[in-house]
Every structure is written in C-alpha cells, then in structure tokens.
Amino acid sequence: MSTTATTTSPAPRADRVDVPLPGTQRVWGMIAEFDTPADIMEAAKKVRAEGFRFWDCHTPFPVHGLDKAMGVKRTILPVLVFGAGFTGLLAGLGLQIFTNSLSLKIWAMVWVTGYPFLISGKPLLSIPAFIPVVFEVTVLLSALSAVGLMLLMNGLPRLYHPLFTSKRFLRATDDRFFISIEARDPRFVRSRTEAFLRSLGAKSIEVIED
Amino acid sequence: MAHSTATADLSDSSVMGDSRLAAVSRAALGIGIAGLLATAWIGWNRADPAQFAKIYLVNFMFVLALCLGSLQFTLIQHLVRAGWSVVVRRVAESIAANLTWIWILFLPVAWLYFSNPHFGEHGPSGLGLVWPWADMEWMRSHDAAEAAIVDKKAAYLNPKFFMIRAVAYFVIWAGTAAWLLRTSRAQDASGSVALTQRMGKWAGPLIILYGVSITFAAFDWMMSLSPTWFSTMFGVYFFCCVSTAGFSFLAFVVLRMQQMGYLRNVVTPEHYQDLGKLIFAFGVVFWAYIAYSQYMLIWYANIPEETTFFLSRQVGGWTWLSAILLVGHFMIPFVLLISRWVKRWRLTLALGAVWMAAFAWLDLWYLIMPPVPTKLATYDSLSAFAEANAGASTGLLDPLPYTMLVGMMGLLVWSTAARLSRGPVLCRRDPRLPESLRFENI
Question: Which of B103, B109, B153, B357 could share a disulfide with B157, CB 3.0–4.6 Å?
Fold first, then answer.
C-alpha cells in the first residue's frame, strides 16, 4: 500500500518514461503487485469470488494450490494426448499390416501396394514383429502432440504482450507476484477495479495500456 | 503455504499402533493357521510331491515378493532423498521387516537338501525334485545329451553352492530390512537428522546389493527350474513381479489402515496418486516392456534351446494363461490405471492393487508351474513334448495353491500387523515429514 503508481498519478516516474502519454493508448488492463505466495493466494480467492473472468496470476515459480484458488479447470491435454497416441498406435499397425501383410492396392496419388516379404519363416502378419514400430509411433505422436497442443492451447509462441510494457512487471520472473485483470472483462471498471485491488492489499497497482 | 484442505491428525489414535492392529494380527494368525491346516489336509496324500513343492515355491516367492517390494520402496526413497513418501515409509519398513523371518518358509527347501529322500523309483530326488540339475544322476539316466549341457554349469548349479547363496540372500535382505527399521525407529526417539543422512548414504550400496541378490535369487529359484534355458532378462522379470506385488500390497495396507482410523489426513489422495503411479509404471508398463522384450528376441531368433520356455507355456491350458496375463497384467490395467482419478479415489485404487497383486501371483504361477522339457531341445524331442502336453492343465482349479496362499498370507499379515501395533505407524520425527504432509501433485 506504500507506493501506488497509476498512469493517472501526476508525478512522472523514472521507470515509466517509455510509456506513451495517458490517453493516447487503449487500456489493456491492470496489474496488482504482491510480496508473497500467501498474499497472492488470498487475493486470487477474492478476485475469483468477485466474479472476474479474464484475469491471471503471474508468479516467479509454481505456487501449489494457486490453480485451485483461481478456479482454473484441469486441462484436457491428457485426453488429447491419449487420442494422439492411440492414433499413432493404429497408424503404426496399419502401415505395417498394409506394407507387409496384405496385397491390397490403394490409391495415394499413384496406385501403391504392399510388399509381402517372408522373414525367417514367420507369418506375414506377425504382430510381435510389429510392436517396436507401433510403440515408437505411439510415443512419437504422443510426445509431439503433447508439446504442440500445449503451445497451441497457451497461445504460444507469442512475441509481444501488453504486460511487457511494464518495467515493474519484470520482477514477476524474480521476486514479485502479480495479478492482472484485463479490461475486456465485463466486470472491469477502471476506478472500481483499482479500488478493489487496493483493498486486497496490493503493494502497487498499475494500469497497462496496449 | 496458506492453503490446506484438512489438517493432518497427528494424535496418538491416528499415528500410534494399538489394539486395533493387534486384533487384525490375531485374526490373521487364525486364518493363516486354518489355511495351513487345510493345505496339510488336502496335500497329505498327494501322489506328486514335485507338484506340491512347486506350488509351495510359487506361494513362497509371492510372499517374498511382497516383502521385497516394500524393501525396495524404502531403499529407493532414501536413495533419492524423497520427501513425499515419508508418511507411508513406516508401513513399508514394517512390511519389509518380515524379511527377518521369511527364511523360515524356505526351510522345506533346506529339508529337501539335507534329507535326500527317494520319493520314487524313477524320479529325481532331494532338491532335484524341484530343480532337475540338483540330481545329476537322474538327469544322466534320463537324457545324457541334456545332462552333458547342465554338467558344464555344475560349478554354479550345485546343491551346496545353491544353499550358500540362499543364505547370503537372506542375510542381505534381513540385515537391510532390520537396519532400516531400527534406524527409523531410533529417529522416532531422537529426531536426529544424522540418521536420515546415514540411511541416505547407505541406500546406494545397499540397493546395489539388493539388485544383485534378487537377480541371482530369481536365477537360482525360478530360472534354474529349466536348467538349460537362460534369459538375461529374467532377473528384471522378477524385479517386475516384486514391484507389482510389493507396491500393490503397500498401497492396499495403507488404504486398509486408513479405513481402520490410522493416518487420518496424513496420507492423502496426493500420496495415493503417487503409489498408483508406481504400480502403473513398474507393475503394468515396465512389466509389459520387459516381458515383451524377452519374448520378442526368443520368438524372432527361434533357437530351440531358447524357445522351450515359451513352448512349455503354449501347450494346453497354458496358452490361455499366457493370453490372460497379457490382457489382465497389461491391457486392462493400462487403460484403467492411466487416469488420475482412478489412482486418487480410494475404492478404485484398492481394487487396482488387489487386481495387480492377483496378477503378480498368476505371473509367478506362469513362471514356475508349467511342464519343463527335460530332453535335449531338438525338433523331435520338442514335438514329442508338445504332443505329450497338448492337454496340459494349468492346475489353477486345484484348491491347494489357494489354501497355501491363505496360510502364508495369514502369517505375513500376522507378523506385519503385530509389528505395526507395537509402535508409531508414522515416521513421526523424520525431518521431511512436514514436506510429505503438504505434498501435492502439480
């Protein structure tokens, strides 16, 4: 509560010189700064209870239980990865059965057919021999989909974010804990949200412009 | 952290063993004795002592695996300086401490060694009743070519060295388990951090000894049932049996104790999820991985001296058991245990643990009981073997293995519950206990 910096405050601050003059930019949202994981945990519960939807917490390290306090739903990523892995399993199996065990002709730009090849007297369709490839393709698709979908669902890679304009916010990767509330949130009213964040015990509050 | 759903109950009724566990112990002893009496009654007039001895071996290996699983669990936690597992470690230590007396169950084997009775005019005798290599005289008269191969292994596979090794294994296991429990209990009194550090320091050398000893025990007691067959994967295979049975038993015991009112809010779904992960990783996935690796190499190379192992498991009813293991030990639990909620919800985890322990037992049955080809592996001898055993039964409808299992499990639970009833069921002054109490999966 000691220092409160907003764009409306008259005294220009040294760490805000790169921000354009007030009123020339659209307001993106507001950030509130906290000192400890316990503080942000309490604050997050209250922000959630207030009914905000477009808001987030930024911490230098994972804070256990913060997701629960924020009411973040569990990701569906594992289900998607399972689906991708299963697809890999079927693809690996299908590829080998088609190429080694069947004499089917299919059209894939040109007519292609399998190449039944007898290896050490085993049946042409020998599941045990196919398992290593099936396993590898399953793992490959699982891993690629896990990484790829994680990036996609997080909206990454993203080279610019309005929060980057704040010098103060840099400490989110070091020793400060931030709650950001976006202006597009239906409950966002600049003056009231600022007062609300101050009531949570924020060390400082800053309006972020895009 | 500022959040916490419910506070762990560290009062005496929650963390001190008392009459509730003592009652379980007495009941288990009664059930165990009943099981052993039933076994004696059913088995008394069995015509085939070799079959009886092998059934005994299956059940012995199973209760041994339950104890070894907890020993390896404890060692791993010390080795990696794990924090999460402190709340269940005393239970694991107490189960592992059964290794101080489990050698008594091995005494019938020693009796075979010393007695050398001739059960039949035409069969092997003494230790050879179970392990053919122990009666070379019989092997030579049965098939000279096969015996000539086994003769080359005589420096390792001979009854005297076999018994010396057995003693060494039991000394290693009993010593490790007793030391871990004693040190941990000493910490209950002193709260000394140095004891945790000492256990962490020795966990490394001890786990090497442990790994070597279970590998060679598996070679001695199970792989040498067919003395010309070999697999470098076999020690790892037994490690999987131990992990499956041991981690499942540990999870089940903790679940049951919590149901009885112990460890209230001390063990949480977070810990159960991690125990479930261990069962899933080592009992389901790793088992499938190494069992398949062993199968695939032998199947692909198709060399008679190696394929005998799978031939004797693909005759008669054994074909079905092989398939049931594939489905029940891997496919079904893989799909079920992969989910998060299954490992966190007590009922499903308990069902999963019982299921996996049952399949660990079936897996040992599959390793030990099938008929063994005793003639030199040639096209003719193996064809004759397959023909002779075309109707081979797995023997799983026989009540004997189950009464024996009940008997041995009764003794195991009797001893474990009695040990737990006499002291704290929680490492109360472990320096990592606070970390374990607030442990959360991300």
Answer: B153
Task: Dig out the tokens for B176 from the structure.
Answer: 């490790």
- Percentage of chain B modeled with pLDDT above 90: 77
Could you report the per-residue pLDDT of B239-281, keeping only the tens digit for each?
999 999 999 999 999 999 999 999 999 999 999 999 999 999 9
Whether B1 and A68 lie within 8 Å, measured CB to CB:
no
Q: Do B440 and A38 lie within an 8 Å CB cutoff?
A: no
Amino acid occupying residue B340: R
Q: Which residues contact A43 (CB under 8 A, 6 or more apart)?
A: A32, A34, A179, A200, A201, A202
What is the mean predicted confidence (pLDDT) over B156-179? 95
Radius of gyration (C-alpha) of chain A in whole angstroms: 27
Vertex B358: Cα angle to B355 and B363 (nearest 5): 125
- Whole-number Å distance between alpha carbons of B109 and B64: 14
What would the mean pLDDT of B334-343 be, rounded to a whole number? 92
| Ranges of CATH 3.30.70 domains, chain A | 27-73+158-209
Say what the pLDDT of residue A7 is: 45
User: Cβ contact (<8 Å) for A65 and B299?
Assistant: no
Please state, in angstroms and rounded to a whole number, the distance separating the CA atoms of residues B384 and B388: 6
Helix axes B49-79, B346-368, angle to 10 degrees: 130
How far apart CA B113 and CA B128 sit, in angstroms, is: 9
- Report whether B21 contacts B424 (CB < 8 A): no
Q: Which residues of chain A have pLDDT under 70?
A: 1-25
The dihedral over CA atoms of A26, A32, A33, A38, expressed in degrees to the nearest 10, equals: -150
Q: What is the CATH number of domain A27-73+158-209?
A: 3.30.70
A42 contacts in chain B (CB < 8 Å) = 2
Q: Which of A16-20, A131-135, B40-44, B320-324 shows the lowest per-residue confidence on average (mean pLDDT)?
A: A16-20
Q: Distance (Å, rounded) from C-alpha A2 to C-alpha A118? A: 81
Q: Cβ–Cβ contacts within 10 Å for residue B275, how many?
A: 24
Q: Which of B1, B300, B338 sits opposite A64 (nearest CB)?
A: B1
Q: Kindly determine whether residue A64 and residue B296, on different chains, have CB atoms separated by under 8 Å.
A: no
- pTM for this prediction: 0.88
* Contact indicator for B432, B83 with CB cutoff of 8 Å: yes
The pLDDT value given to residue B121: 56
